[in-house]
């Protein structure tokens, strides 16, 4: 396999909007691209910069019901706002805006391109920041997600006879991907996320292990609020390396949502950019063919900083701790005065840490007893 990397992007990502009051801001993609470009991370001769293409409806129908796709397409072209709550369309969470179907197809097309490049051996790593819509169901929009690009791409890989490992680091449980492959032993899904006790999507408990031949191939590590880098990396290192080693996937697909950062407005984890950098280095050094998707993140500058650090690791470039001059001017005009590229180290308060640690201990013990033996992993 060629040691090249693909960066998939489109200026059309900025042609759409969920609405001014919605937390999902598409400006984050342009900011990430501008920061990556200013740092010279697209000039490596081993890097292919590719324009995302819209997915065909036949690709979408690998997973989504055609009646749902027809309604989404119809509403997207309507001149007046439409809603269908049976399909999860038109509420505050999943608004119907002009061109929403085209936008969703563009996201899915970029993820399919990334999967094909990696599967064909043209690139070992492909990064598509707009992907990672892990909540969408077969016939329902959910969690800002209209189409589940990861599920669609995994189905395309399965049709090639490939085994896929999906690792989700978003603060929200990857429920749509888990549900799609809950009874499938050719797809290993692992999700590290904030506990669903009082947090969307209220799923992803440690005892959700799959069903039928897929039992043992759905893995969840719910994390208590105030989990910091120490606990997050302990969970990651305890679960991800041994399971991927045993499963030996043909392709690794990761969802790298960064809403676990402690300054994200929607979540209650206390991670820093260092946690995401550490995980990214492990994925890179695993030498697995790797499809990298974006995901959540509701602080625009957090997203741009962390995904830039991720792309720097993919490129093998050590980046500075501070943001470059032009980008500082850009974010200053947006009202963001902090010019650090990397977060300063942070630890949760001792009482919060102790409670989060006790919960993690119990979850890891459960997985040690109930999951690891299924894969031949000893204590």
Automatic annotation (TrEMBL):
Pfam families: Hist_deacetyl
Keywords (A to Z) from UniProt: Acetoin catabolism, Hydrolase
Involved pathway(s): Ketone degradation; acetoin degradation
This protein's record includes keyword Hydrolase: yes
Domain (Histone deacetylase): residue spans on this chain: 22-311
GO annotation (BP), single: epigenetic regulation of gene expression
GO molecular-function terms, A-Z: histone deacetylase activity; hydrolase activity
InterPro entries per UniProt: AcuC, HDAC_I/II, HDACs, His_deacetylse_dom, His_deacetylse_dom_sf, Ureohydrolase_dom_sf
Keyword Hydrolase recorded: yes
Family, as annotated: Belongs to the histone deacetylase family.
Name of this chain's protein: Acetoin utilization protein AcuC
